[in-house]
């Protein structure tokens, strides 16, 4: 089932999410719905707060970024090729490493706004997979970037929080329009009241 994406301005997007346990009600169906919602919205990641759940759960499919890359884009520049498709439950960052680099990010909860954001090149996470098997893995490149973007959602942060104050002031009108529902998107969205 395709779920509505929560728009900028909703308090859930500023909430630090809670860890869950294997008996979380309807978890398998929720994960299935998150994948369906993410793909229907043309996203590469989706976090539970974006569908109005305050739990530490997100899904990432960076493989589709590589599948859609131009053939002249050199894979050697992307140590994480061919990407991942993975579920992250109860994720917590162990370490951030490598030089920060800029990438133009967008967010399903903040439609029609894209900005360059600097993030670490590498992240090591402790998390459990969808079967609650504990994992500790290091990710890099674009995959690390998508993971860090989704991780921020479960920490109550948004990519616009990384922007300089002047840039944020310049975006204020657009952000206000999003929170008031004055934006058109081609996916299901729910706006703050």
Plain-language structure description:
The protein is α+β, with helices and mostly antiparallel strands and 193 residues long. It has one domain (5-186): Alpha-Beta Complex (Peptide Deformylase). The chain has 4 helices and 9 strands, in the order E-H-E-E-H-E-E-E-E-E-H-H-E. The strands form 3 sheets. The protein has a 5-stranded antiparallel β-sheet, sandwiched between helices. The model has no long low-confidence stretch (mean pLDDT 95).
Helix content: 10-25%
User: What is the quaternary state of this protein?
Assistant: single chain
CATH superfamily: Peptide deformylase
Strand residues, percent: 25-35%
Flag low-confidence runs: none
Distance between the termini: 24 Å
CATH class designation = Alpha Beta
Strand order of the largest sheet: 2-3-4-7-8
Q: How many domain regions?
A: 1
The CATH topology label is Peptide Deformylase
Q: Please tell me the overall pLDDT.
A: 95
Q: Write down how many β-strands occur, each being a DSSP E stretch of 2 or more residues.
A: 9
Radius of gyration: 16 Å
Give me the number of helical elements. Answer: 4
What class, by secondary structure content?
A: alpha+beta
Shape: globular
The biggest beta sheet is recorded as: 5 strands, antiparallel
The H/E string reads: EHEEHEEEEEHHE
CATH architectural group? Alpha-Beta Complex
């Amino acid at each position: 089932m395709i779920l509505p994406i929560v728009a900028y301005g909703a308090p859930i997007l500023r909430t630090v999410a809670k860890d869950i346990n294997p008996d979380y009600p309807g978890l398998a169906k929720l994960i299935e719905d998150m994948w369906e919602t993410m793909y229907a919205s043309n996203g590469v990641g989706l976090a539970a707060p974006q569908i109005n759940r305050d739990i530490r759960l997100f899904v990432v499919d960076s493989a589709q970024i590589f599948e859609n890359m131009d053939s002249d884009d050199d894979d050697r520049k992307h140590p994480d090729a061919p990407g991942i498709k993975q579920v992250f439950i109860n994720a917590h960052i162990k370490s951030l490493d490598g030089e920060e680099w800029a990438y133009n990010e967008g967010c399903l909860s903040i439609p029609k706004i894209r900005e360059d954001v600097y993030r670490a090149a590498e992240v090591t996470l402790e998390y459990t997979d969808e079967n609650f098997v504990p994992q500790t893995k290091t990710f890099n490149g674009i995959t690390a970037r998508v993971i860090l973007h989704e991780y921020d959602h479960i920490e109550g942060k948004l990519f616009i929080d990384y922007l300089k104050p002047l840039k944020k002031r310049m975006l204020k009108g657009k952000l206000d329009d999003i929170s008031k529902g004055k934006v058109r998107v081609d996916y299901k969205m729910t706006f703050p009241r």
